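I had to read the description of the data format several times before I understood it. Each protein is reduced to its one-letter sequence and a matching series of backbone shape codes. The format is easy to grasp once an entry is in front of the reader. For illustration, here is how one protein appears when written out as sequence plus structure tokens:
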Amino acid sequence: MEYTEKDMFGIEGEVAVLTGAAGGIGQEIAAAMAALGAKVALADLNREKLEESVGQITKNGGEAMGIVTDVTNKKSVEEMAKAVYDKHGKIDILVNCAGIAHLQDAVDFEEDIWDKVMAVNVKGTLLPCQVVGRYMLEKEKGRIVNISSVRGMQGRARDLAYAPSKGAVDQLTRSLAIEWAKKNINVNAVAPIFTLTDINREMLQQKETMDWVMSRMPKGRLSMPSYLTGPVIFLCGKSSEFITGQVVYVDGGWTCA
């Protein structure tokens, strides 16, 4: 059977849910998917930024809807997924981008902050996978991409919660991939290095931190949110049919240096 480039790499007409999509990596991926003809649903707690992001996508001719969602609350996630399914009759793609970070000395790391990071990064990935996964299992078709981090396999001082949370995301990705593989649902993760988003901006403005990052970055520059769009969209298309349970490092060579 012959395939066209559109068959192999296109996502036109696919319905995609993206969490944490009011800004940063999630917003960038949502905009790219919409530009390629996907119908995107942006889920985020920040109503104002969510409306801005949806407005920008629709202004550029894309089809988008925004749903205020707390990814740590199952009922909220269920209501979001139902709204998308009721409108489109299917959900083909889920991209989990919601995430937070906090740096603090280990002996002083606050318990409530640990709980919050774990809730957003781990539970906030699990719940959308569970809820949207039910719709995918019914149709035996789906692509899930979780945004992880190189911290999922590399520790870092003062990174007591974020690094373990991303390690959990990696293992969650692998476990779901094994369980759902025969149902034609591929589950993968994309793991970036330091990317110019709000979650990293303050830290990267510190000269000592920036000098350390640049000293071991083979590419010699920071990652940008747009660098994640290609790998994520590839994992959502037909060309990645036999790729599941993988963590793809989009890190400018960081993990091999």
